[in-house]
Write a structure and sequence with these properties.
Blueprint: E1 5-9, H1 14-25, E2 29-34, E3 53-57, E4 70-73, H2 80-85, H3 87-108, E5 111-117, H4 144-164, E6 168-173, E7 176-177, H5 188-197, E8 202-205, E9 211-213, E10 215-216, H6 217-229, E11 238-240, E12 245-247, H7 248-259, E13 265-268, H8 283-289, H9 297-311
The structure holds nicotinamide-adenine-dinucleotide and uridine-5'-diphosphate.
Uridine-5'-diphosphate (UDP) binds at residues 79-80, 175, 187-188, 191, 203-205, 210, 212, 248, 271, 274.
Length: 312
């Protein structure tokens, strides 16, 4: 095995911390870069004793110099509450972060993977979403700072590849959950579990008929590793998600059942531009990466509930 030196931006976040852990377990050297906007030291504190792990406080909107073999670019707040908190900063993080990391990849000839998102499809008119669908995004809506930032980042990646031969990989991640999500993150899985465990009302936005397809974090990390290792000609974008589609009401009922909670469901206003449905078509990932998710929602929720139970 060749020990690679790998940079993970956003490495102290929810997904990033699992990716750092997996890369170290696979025998690689990991540099974790984060500005701790939504990430936490607690997520990676257990890795600090490993001599092959290095932690750097840095903001990706500023240039960064290092020598590595591979870059996973994850730095960007992912929860609507957090990415809307400072919309300008969110779009800067996606766009300037992509420019800085692509410039770095170009200089040091590193392979670079972009954590893009199903949000590039917006409120989709094609269902399930295939990679060839261009999406349905409101460019001036509440979600635009995130959606358009990620779309522009994809454009930058593709053009650095075409113009400068940078070796790129783009994955479009669908809703992912698991241990180390921030309890106040505002995303639906963490909100419902925390509310159920604390006996608070479960807050469904709208009537709960909107759908999402939830992927357990270990499945995502496996997809990321496989994408990075795939043949150079395969740049993506490729959907990485679990096609199991559930309404938000079904999710609430499942969380209540699995936690044995006495919480009641209440309804709150649906945020603007909230996508009505979302489900990945994963045929491309199956064909190119031999990848498909392994962990059904109920099994992943049990593990995630165990985590939140231990920290709150
Ligand atoms: P997260 O908020 O837990 O992690 C993001 C990390 O990036 C945090 O540690 C944060 O501090 C860091 N960060 C933010 N701005 C930064 C900046 N300017 N400079 C340096 N670091 C910065 O979110 P996550 O769920 O772990 O998401 C990781 C990546 O995956 C994001 O790029 C996100 O857009 C993408 N993604 C996640 C999901 C999901 O469901 N979790 C879905 C689609 C895409
Ligand atoms: N949602 C909800 N209650 C909550 C948090 C979210 O009903 O407490 C809904 C939200 O309106 C959306 C879905 O759950 O329809 C998923 O929201 P999340 O923020 O997790 O992700 P995204 O909308 O970006 O897919």
């Amino acid at each position: 095995m060749i020990r690679k030196k790998v940079l993970v931006t956003g490495g102290a976040g929810f997904v990033g911390s699992h990716l750092c852990e997996r890369l170290l377990n696979d025998g690689h050297e990991v540099v974790c870069l984060d500005n701790y906007f939504t990430g936490q030291k607690r997520n990676i504190v257990h890795l600090l004793d490993n001599p092959y792990f290095e932690l750097i406080r840095h903001d990706v909107t500023m240039p960064f110099f290092i020598e590595v073999d591979e870059i996973y670019n994850l730095a960007c707040p992912a929860s609507p509450v957090h990415y809307q908190y400072n919309a300008i900063k969110t779009i800067k993080t996606s766009v300037m972060g992509a420019i800085n990391m692509l410039g770095l990849a170009k200089r040091i000839r590193a392979k670079i993977l972009q954590a893009s998102t199903s949000e590039v499809y917006g409120d989709p008119l094609v269902h399930p979403q295939v990679e060839t669908y261009w999406g349905h995004v409101n460019p001036i809506g509440e979600r635009a700072c995130y959606d358009e930032g990620k779309r522009a980042a994809e454009t930058l990646f593709v053009n650095y590849h075409k113009q400068n031969n940078v070796r790129i990989k783009i994955i479009r991640i669908f809703n992912t959950y698991g241990p180390r999500m921030h309890p106040n993150d505002g995303r639906v899985v963490s909100n419902f579990i925390v509310q159920a465990l604390q006996g608070q009302d479960i807050t469904i936005y709208g009537d709960g008929s909107q759908t999402r397809s939830f992927q357990y974090v270990d499945d995502l990390v496996e997809g990321m590793i496989r994408m990075m290792a795939s043949g150079e000609e395969f740049t993506g974008p490729v959907n990485i998600g679990n096609p199991g589609e559930f309404t938000i009401l079904q999710l609430a009922e499942m969380v209540i059942r699995l936690t044995n909670s006495k919480s009641k469901i209440i309804h709150m206003p649906l945020p603007s531009d909230d996508p009505m449905q979302r489900q990945p078509n994963i045929e491309l990932a199956k064909k190119e990466l031999g990848w498909s998710p392994k962990i059904p929602l109920e099994e992943g929720l049990v593990k995630t509930i165990g985590y939140f139970d231990s920290i709150i």
